[in-house]
Amino acid sequence: MAQFALPKNSKIHTGQLVDASEGAKDSKVFKVYRYDPDTQDNPRWDKYKIDLSQCGPMVLDAIIYIKDKIDSTLTFRRSCREGICGSCSMNVDGTNTLACLKAIEDVKGEVQISPLPHMPVVKDLVPDVNHVYTQYASLEPWLKTSSPEPEKEHLQSADEAQVLNGSDGHGPAMCILCFCCSTSCPSYWWNSDKFLGPAVLLQAYRWIADTRDDATGERLDDLEDPFKLYRCHTIMNCTNTCPKGLNPAQAIAEIKKQMVARQG
Ligand code: SF4
Ligand code: SF4
Ligand code: FES
């Protein structure tokens, strides 16, 4: 008989509440997922009440403040703090996003912060991205050419480049591999062992659409598989979630169109 209860050690317990606001008028509670693999303890929700006048306006600013001033054991990834590197992706207030682009004032009440869903957790807010990066590497994401080397660089026309950059600056080459989309995709939740998921498929399209690349046929052959591509059922969570405003669902549709076009 199927069991629908969560395994005991995955239940999230209530953790500590640290009031570091010192009675400030403009304060906010951040409810943060904590998990330490070095203990046998279940994950827990810790709460930190902080004075908003002491930190910057973004959720990442609050997380950095908590680590610097209240609890140095809190673990998370970040680098650029301006939506470029993709490292601070996490779930804030129920939505996958970049903590550095998410304004604290946009969240009503407590700010709940947890790691990207449906990925193993390394510690606290850090997901294990080995699997998605292995999938990404399987694309061989570099320019493959069979034509003679040009004297200088491989050139594209402005129109050809626009397919990659997007006429609105939101084309597939703008993807920062934050994986907010893949971890919001129900098909990826259930089939991530075989389905490549929207982030990796957007990258696949980025190379298929690159007019300087001579391996389009080979790249399409590699996706001709019941799982890698066709587990996408156009649910659109990916596009709705992307914090950079990209459209992985459309990129997937373009790959499917190219698959059909070459059969006819
Ligand atoms: S459109 Fe496809 S890839 Fe995007 S969320 Fe839906 S099933 Fe996943
Ligand atoms: S498509 Fe958007 S959400 Fe997905 S990995 Fe790229 S930047 Fe992140
Ligand atoms: S810290 Fe680089 S995207 Fe947020």
What do you see in this structure?
By secondary structure, the protein is of the alpha/beta class. The chain folds into 2 domains: 8-126, Beta-grasp domain (Ubiquitin-like (UB roll), Roll); 130-263, Alpha-helical ferredoxin (Fumarate Reductase Iron-sulfur Protein, Chain B, domain 2, Orthogonal Bundle), CATH 1.10.1060. The chain is 28% helix and 15% strand. The protein contains 8 helices and 8 strands. It has helices at 59-70, 130-137, 158-165, 186-191, 197-208, 216-223, 237-241, 248-263, and strands at 13-19, 27-34, 44-51, 89-92, 95-98, 111-114, 121-123, 126-127. The chain has a 6-stranded mixed sheet with strand order 1-3-2-6-4-5, with helices on one face. It has a two-stranded antiparallel ribbon with strand order 7-8. β7 (121-123) and β8 form a beta hairpin. The longest helix has 16 residues, at 248-263. The radius of gyration is 21 Å and the shape is globular. The termini are far apart. The structure holds iron/sulfur cluster (2 copies) and FE2/S2 (inorganic) cluster. One iron/sulfur cluster binds at residues 185, 187-188, 198, 232-238, 248-249, 252.
Characterize the overall form.
Answer: globular
Strand content: 15-25%
| CATH level-four homologous superfamily name of the largest domain | Alpha-helical ferredoxin
In total, how many beta strands?
A: 8
What small ligands are held by the chains? iron/sulfur cluster, FE2/S2 (inorganic) cluster
Q: Any guess at the CATH architecture of the largest domain?
A: Orthogonal Bundle
Largest sheet: 6 strands, mixed
Lateral arrangement of strands in the main beta sheet = 1-3-2-6-4-5
**How many DSSP helices?**
8
CATH topology of the largest domain: Fumarate Reductase Iron-sulfur Protein, Chain B, domain 2
Could you spell the SSE succession in H and E letters? EEEHEEEEEHHHHHHH
Proportion of helical residues? 25-40%
Unreliably modeled segments: none
Q: How many whole angstroms does the radius of gyration measure?
A: 21 Å
> What's the N-to-C terminus distance?
47 Å
